[in-house]
Amino acid sequence: MRGRIVITGLCLAAGVFGQDYDLVLKGGHVIDPKNQISAVRDVAIKDGKIAVVAERIDPAKGRQVVNVAGLYVTPGLVDIHVHVYAGTGERNSYAGDNSVYPDGFTFRSGVTTVVDAGCSGWRNFEDFKDRVIDRSKTRVLAMLNIVGAGMRGGRVEQNLDDMDGKATATMALKHKGVVVGIKGAHFAGPEWKPYQQAVLAGTIANIPVMIDYGANRPERPLYDLLTKVLRPGDIYTHMYSGLRGEQDPETLGPSKAMVEGRARGIIFDVGHGGGSFLWSVAVPLVKAGFIPDSISTDLHVGSMNSGMKDMLNVMDKMLALGMPLDSVILRSTWNPAKEVKQEELGNLSVGAPADVAVLRLIDGHFGFVDTRGGRLDGSQKLICELTLRDGKPAWDLNGITHVEWQKLEPARHGARPGR
Ligand SMILES: [Zn+2]
């Protein structure tokens, strides 16, 4: 509307003068775990940053005021395990057709930041950056695959000669702040080399390593990975897959490897994906108190069309397992931001980028499906009403930031009405 003020039932009053803020979200329940806020608060945004979070902000101070009473206002969700290196045309490859373009699948679920988990390696990261990272509205960060050629299936990912920790670290340091981790994945062999090289790269570049532990090999037991090879702060994803000894066969709770790994500071991430989330593992592990440090999707063309739908679906599953909403939000915002050392994200501190999700929690009868096709019924579900990226609406399900159509300026011939 080019600076014009329009007053509607949803956009409350705003005066022309003395407006300190671009946007005020009024009356929502703010959950900002970093700042230990879980209460009804107003949130004001200016120049794409969080300006104030307070019990009451004078609506006259906002150029636009949006009523979000009855909704939850959280930091934009941070999904640290996705696959978004789309567009190369390569078949059966995560550096190609298995990946999705992030903007099509993020904002509608409240996600404002994703971390691509190793689709590219040091040889093709800059192609990925040019094709996707630099063109996306979504904040896209990346973990480099320890395989130089990236996550391209078959023999490419098994090539020990293309696992060069130093070259990987050099590329990571060249793109500091965008490359936020190193990924080891899908390795089937008995060797430790992929993990040792990943840790070498992570140590040189001072960033965490995330491991998808590939084939379960007795030569490299999970216990040794989690208690000896990885460093505190490194991330074990697919924690509820049950594929590599995550679960104790007798108690059905977490294995000794998982318990000792956590005690040592290893981070545990969901990474639901198309084959890595079983109720038969998640139910007893959560019951035993072994909950995720971070909740993530492992989004790709396969997973998103099966049991895993999107970030909110994975969060709903955690609610269905009995985790409180505040804890689920913590593990979808501030924890993952910290894990990848991006502490300006995942929170609503004054001065932080105004990446915000406005969520509705609805009650009803819902079914949640794991990667074997088993269903667990639940009674709560999160819906994303509004997503802000740097203070601007990137998704608005019910038009709460828009005006009623009768109040739009008359359209000039051929002109497109817009905000
Ligand atoms: Zn993955």
Give the oligomeric state of the chains in this entry, treating copies of one chain as homo and distinct chains as hetero. Answer: single chain
CATH fourth-tier homologous superfamily of the domain at 77-339: Metal-dependent hydrolases
CATH class of the domain at 77-339: Alpha Beta
* CATH fold-type name of the domain at 77-339: TIM Barrel
Specify the helix fraction band.
10-25%
Based on Cα principal axes, name the global outline. Answer: globular
Low-confidence stretches: 1-15
**Averaged pLDDT, please?**
95
Give me the secondary-structure category.
alpha/beta
SSE order, one letter for each helix or strand: EEEEEEEHEHEHEHEHEHHHHEEE
Radius of gyration: 22 Å
Q: Cofactors and ligands present?
A: zinc ion
Q: How many individual helices?
A: 9
Largest beta sheet, briefly?
8 strands, mixed
Distance between the termini: 5 Å
Percent range for β-strand residues: 25-35%
Please provide the count of β strands.
15
CATH architecture of the domain at 77-339: Alpha-Beta Barrel
Written description of the protein model:
This protein has a domain at 77-339: Metal-dependent hydrolases (TIM Barrel). The strands form two sheets. Strands 1, 2, 3, 4, 5, 13, 14 and 15 form an eight-stranded mixed β-sheet that branches. Strands 6-7-8-9-10-11-12 form a seven-stranded parallel β-sheet. It has helices at residues 125-131, 165-174, 193-205, 222-229, 256-264, 279-287, 311-320, 325-330, 334-339; strands spanning 21-32, 37-46, 49-54, 62-67, 72-75, 77-82, 111-121, 139-145, 179-184, 209-211, 235-236, 267-268, 356-369, 375-389, 392-396. Helices cover 19% and strands 26% of the residues. The chain is of the alpha/beta class and 419 residues long. It binds zinc ion. Zinc ion binds at residues 81, 83, 117, 212, 273, 298. Zinc ion is lined by residues 81, 83, 117, 212, 273, 298.
